[in-house]
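subagent[fold] <- orchestrator: predict structure for attached chain, return tokens only, no commentary.
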Amino acid sequence: MIKPYQFFAGGPIGKGNQPYSWIHIEDLVRAILHIYEHRLTGVYNLTAPYPVTQQHLGKVIAETLHRPHYFYTPKALLKLVLGEQAMMVTKGQKVFPKKLLSHGFHFKYPNAKMALADLLDQHE
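subagent[fold] -> orchestrator:
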């Protein structure tokens, strides 16, 4: 999602209200180590505790990179270009790390703004 913003062409995909679950790479690695070190079993959702909408995530990317967020991408265009894979971007998915949190894991980057500032090296 970052590339279009780097080229000043970022914006909402469809209506932008589709939910996105995400996780910072450092929290992903830490969560895996937490599960391993505590010998936890079962299925865990490895996502940050605060899913966002595509519109919100796009605005945070734009803000972090100091770029605009106004080039609307129609769902039909994505479906034409990506085929069935477009569903991953246009439908979204809202997932919570309930089980991971209940086993004492604490996120270093719980929100998208903090994560993107770190990943894009744009610390405030």
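orchestrator: received. Logging for downstream: The CA atoms of residues 78 and 84 lie 9 Å apart. The chain has one domain: 2-119.
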